[in-house]
Write a structure and sequence with these properties.
- The structure holds three protein chains of three kinds.
- By secondary structure, chain A is an all-alpha fold.
- Chain A has helices at residues 5-31, 46-58, 60-66, 78-102, 119-122, 160-168, 195-206, 226-232.
- The longest helix of chain A is centred in the N-terminal third of the chain and has 27 residues, at 5-31.
- In chain A, 46% of the residues are buried.
- Helices cover 77% and strands 0% of the residues of chain B.
- In chain B, helix 10 packs antiparallel against helix 12.
- The two termini of chain B are 36 Å apart.
- Chain C has one domain.
- The longest helix of chain C has 30 residues, at 12-41.
- The model of chain C has no long low-confidence stretch (mean pLDDT 80).
- Classes of the chains: A mainly alpha, B mainly alpha, C mainly alpha.
- At the B-C interface, helix 2, helix 8, helix 9 and helix 10 of B face helix 3 and helix 4 of C.
Chain lengths: 233, 468, 105
């Protein structure tokens, strides 16, 4: 049987592959079955909602063109508006993740903090499994190389203005940064992000926003929904 | 067809034209991949001449770089090689010649549309499987057809098979399963840490169950023929086969050590990686044993020189692998250029060197003429091997500095500053390697130009196997 | 053919290389093994570290039994035959190609 073709086909080809799949893929999947995958809609937490509303205030015209179009404007009723913001935020997160993947961001920025090499001091709490059980981690964005820093605790660390300028031309803010420029996320200048730019910014602001110890939002109070509406009108 | 098996003839077995097409396509993708690598390398030094163009974005071309090597260069080269080796070993032609031509065309479409998809920003979030999701099913069907096309003559062999066919038969199954597992499961079935484990398994199996078995199968075929003697021990080569089959797929998680994947699974992956090192030793011993008593053949014979250079690099990478997969090493070198250096040593130093050596050997046979310039082949060897030594050594060393800089909680800019000299040396080495492949491609073109197949000369001089 | 038994002297460098490889490996292995014993003897989590080792031992043992069984069933009796066969086939293929081209060249 070890010299026959069926032996090679069944034992080596299928058997050993299956064994490895069982131990390396099915076992972890079984171990996390108590952590069901969260859909994008459930990922909109107050922190990222705040950031989304913040974008609406910082870039009112661009925001309107991208998300609050003629057909689908911000509802005037505060309750409806709150729902609207959450829906649009979820939509922006999905789109942001797609751009993050498509631009290959994850090949230079990892998304997990290890318990070694002083990483918890540099980035924040060590990554836990539950953080990855959601639709925006499908496929998971662990990453394998850090040319730039880890981003799994990036959200809220810097303002969206900072990110806009940084995406447009990273060298403006970090002179030695080898990060490529992404002018196609903007309409000509960093104060005019297009839909893709806004989506990517909200995705980056989402990273780590689920943590209790979201470090740079200690003084954050949930904004009253009327405020952005009043400003938008 | 009893006549075909009674006295099979080479020209009935091998579709030489197709082999040559595969090689030409492979070299084309190699050049594309290297251009992509150079774009990314220049970006790291802030020397990118065209930084603000969406379709030349280094982030996107970095994915073209890795995918063009895996699916463009290596896969095409291997398919060409399979068309030569499988029929000659099994003494039967492939399942269907029309199917073979169809696979050639289909595979080029798959690779080209992958490249276009990546450049348009449609990547899938899976390392080395960035192939846009709408191409995956097509690629999957292509791999199934490949398995049928080459599996048929292998299955028809009677009695115990030569080890090369063992590797090929298993590789045909594994490649299909690996591609399916990696591209569909993390996308549609599981998420989170478990998907990370599948992703690790995919990167790993792509090297271990697609590239490695085909590569070693190729070595077990060409090395004895070039040395004009059978392998030192066929039995030992089977130990290598079963060892690889058992231990290699169990290691996927070692790419994601210290992630939230359960620790005991991480330990398991580390353990089997170290176990595989012993299996690799048996293979190396076998190939060195085969050399015994052949004098300097492995140096004086040019294709053999490529092969044994690759085997040496293979030993080095596996040794490095057994070390770097330990938790102690990972703490320092994970996420650094060390890993990038390691990957280049495997993909270029081992498998690309083998394929290029095989092309050096086969092209005169396919084109029925000597190389246009044998001297250029030597230049190609030295520039490729030398460039790679510098690049891999440089990146591995640079990775250590990056790792120490991070662990010491230096500001991030320091780790960039520290990397700049290493990145500069890397781009220089990369340029030398790129020049070598350009020279090789030009040499191939000139050889094709003077080929009697093209000029239509009546006599097709037979190129004896021992001319180089 | 009787060959006089000559006691071959092992060159000195073989000993040096052997020692250079073996001593660190033995020390490293012993050290890690001790580590493992300590981890395994520790808390409940530690015992988990033993699972992959036991799994591998079990899988390898099963595989080994199958291998032994295959040997008793007659496999691997002439293990180098395919290698010789392959070599002969190659020579035949080359010869036939040369013959077909020979008269014309």
């Amino acid at each position: 049987m070890f010299e026959s073709k069926s032996g090679i086909f069944l034992i080596a080809g299928i058997g050993f592959f299956g064994l490895a799949f069982l131990s390396n893929a099915v076992v972890p999947a079984m171990m996390y079955r108590h952590l069901p995958e969260k859909p994008v809609a459930d990922l909109v937490n107050p922190n990222v909602r705040y950031q989304f509303e913040d974008l609406a205030q910082r870039y009112p015209d661009e925001f309107k063109a991208a998300f609050a179009t003629e057909q689908d404007p911000v509802p005037t009723d505060p309750q409806e508006a709150a729902k609207w913001y959450s829906t649009k935020c979820a939509e922006a997160l999905s789109m942001g993740r797609k751009i993050y993947t498509g631009e290959g961001c994850w090949h230079c920025h990892s998304q997990f903090v290890r318990p070694v090499s002083n990483e918890d001091r540099r980035y924040g709490p060590v990554s836990k499994s539950w953080e990855y059980q959601n639709e925006l981690q499908r496929p998971v964005m662990f990453g394998t190389r850090r040319v730039g820093p880890d981003l799994s605790r990036e959200g809220g660390r810097r303002s969206s203005d900072w990110h806009a300028v940084h995406f447009f031309r990273p060298k403006t803010l970090s002179p030695t940064s080898p990060m490529p420029e992404y002018p196609w996320l903007f309409d000509g200048s960093p104060d005019k992000p297009n839909k893709r730019g806004l989506a990517l910014m909200i995705y980056v602001q989402w990273l780590g926003s689920w943590l209790e110890s979201y470090p740079y939002y200690e003084d954050y109070e949930p904004t009253k929904i009327e405020k952005p509406i009043a400003e938008a009108e | 067809m009893p006549t075909a098996t009674d006295s099979p003839r080479h020209e009935h077995l091998v579709i030489e034209r197709l082999v040559f097409w595969y090689f030409a396509a492979a070299l084309g993708y190699m050049l594309i991949s290297m251009v992509a690598g150079i774009i990314m390398g220049l970006q790291l030094l802030s020397w990118n001449p065209l930084p603000a163009l969406e379709h030349l974005s280094p982030g996107r071309w970095r994915m073209v770089h890795t995918n063009a090597i895996a699916y463009g260069f290596l896969a095409n080269g291997f398919l060409g090689m399979l068309h030569w080796v499988v029929p000659r070993l099994s003494l039967r032609p492939v399942l269907d010649k029309r199917l073979s031509y169809f696979i050639f065309a289909a595979w080029q479409i798959v690779v080209l549309s992958t490249a276009v998809g990546l450049i348009l920003g449609e990547a899938q979030g899976l390392e080395w499987g960035e192939t846009p999701v709408w191409i995956d099913p097509l690629a999957q069907v292509g791999l199934l057809l490949v398995a049928f096309d080459f599996g048929y003559p292998i299955i028809k062999v009677k009695g115990p098979m030569y080890v090369t066919l063992w590797y090929f038969l298993a590789a045909l199954v594994w490649t299909f399963l690996t591609y399916a597992m990696g591209n569909f499961i993390p996308q549609y079935c599981v998420s989170g840490s478990a998907a990370g484990a599948v992703g690790g398994l995919f990167i790993h199996d792509l090297v271990g169950l697609f590239v490695t078995p085909l590569g070693w199968g190729m070595m077990y075929y060409f090395v004895p023929i070039l040395l004009k003697r059978p392998m030192w021990s066929h039995g030992l080569s089977l130990v290598g086969f079963w060892g690889l089959a058992f231990f290699y797929p169990l290691q996927g998680i070692h790419h994601f050590l210290y992630t939230p994947i359960p620790m005991f699974l991480q330990y398991g992956a580390v353990l089997s990686t170290i176990a595989l090192e012993f299996v690799v030793l048996t293979v190396i011993i076998n190939f060195v044993g085969t050399l015994r008593g052949t004098g300097m053949a492995c140096l004086s014979n040019l294709p053999l020189r490529y092969f044994y250079t690759g085997i040496t690099f293979y030993f080095l990478t596996c040794l490095q692998c057994a070390l770097q997969t330990t938790m102690t090493f990972q703490a320092l070198i994970h996420f650094t250029d060390w890993v990038v250096g390691h990957a280049h040593m495997v993909m270029f130093g081992v498998f690309s060197m083998w394929q290029l050596g095989m092309m050096v050997y086969l092209v005169p046979r396919l084109l029925k003429t000597e190389w246009y310039s044998e001297k250029w082949c030597y230049w190609h060897y030295w520039a490729s091997a030398g460039g790679l030594c510098v690049m891999a050594g440089d990146l591995i060393l640079g990775g250590l500095f990056q790792g120490w800089s991070w662990a010491a909680l230096q500001p991030w800019e320091k780790s960039i500053e520290v990397s700049i000299p290493f990145w500069a040396v890397r781009i220089a080495a990369g340029a030398v390697m790129f020049w070598a492949q350009l020279l090789f491609a030009y040499n191939l073109f000139k050889t094709w130009q003077k080929s009697p197949l093209r000029t239509g000369e009546e006599t097709l001089p037979h190129v004896a196997p021992a001319t180089m | 053919m009787t060959t006089p038994t000559v006691i071959q002297r092992v060159p000195l460098w073989t000993w040096i290389v052997g020692a250079a490889v073996l001593i660190p490996s033995i020390l490293g292995f012993a050290n890690k093994f001790l580590d493992l014993m300590i981890v395994a003897a520790g808390d409940e989590e530690g015992a988990f570290a033993l699972t992959p080792i036991i799994n591998y031992l079990l899988a390898t043992a099963g595989f080994f039994c199958m291998l032994m069984w295959a040997v008793t069933q007659g496999a691997f009796h002439d293990i180098n035959q395919p290698s010789r066969q392959m070599f002969q086939n190659e020579l035949d293929l080359e010869r036939r190609t040369a013959e077909s081209l020979g008269p014309r060249a």
